[in-house]
Amino acid sequence: MTPSVEDRLGISDLFTRYTCALDDGEVDTIVDCFTEDGALVSPAVGAHKGRAAIRAFADRFARFQANGSQLRHVISNLRMRVDGDRAQATCYLIVFLTRDGKSRLLPPGRYECELQRTDGVWRFQNRIVHH
Questions:
Q1: Whether 104 contacts 75, CB under 8 Å
Q2: How does the average pLDDT of the chain come out, rounded?
Q3: Using an 8 Å Cβ cutoff, are 40 and 47 in contact?
Q4: CA distances to 2, 61, 107, 122 from 131, in Å
Q5: pLDDT tens-digit profile of 78-117?
């Protein structure tokens, strides 16, 4: 089904809120991007299911930044399919890591996500990172 403009904007906002929150160490924002039973799977950080596990994952990222390293997640080519309050979305991912004044590019990848609209807001139900 072709997404409405409202759904496109809401889903795009979700991806942007999530990646910026990762980069800024905003733990509560990261957690709020997931449904209560949401899951995140990544070869770099493992599998995390439920908001408590996602909070632990987000806390690790926040400490990473607090220790002087900076990540910059850059996403592009966001595609989505919407069916009522559920959707599937995917995008390309590039991550820059800056440490000690030197930046490098991490292996590129993509996000594959199942989304759910709860309380009028799009959230990740299942988010898989592929590199």
A1: no
A2: 95
A3: yes
A4: 28, 18, 6, 25
A5: 999 999 999 999 999 999 999 999 999 999 999 999 999 9
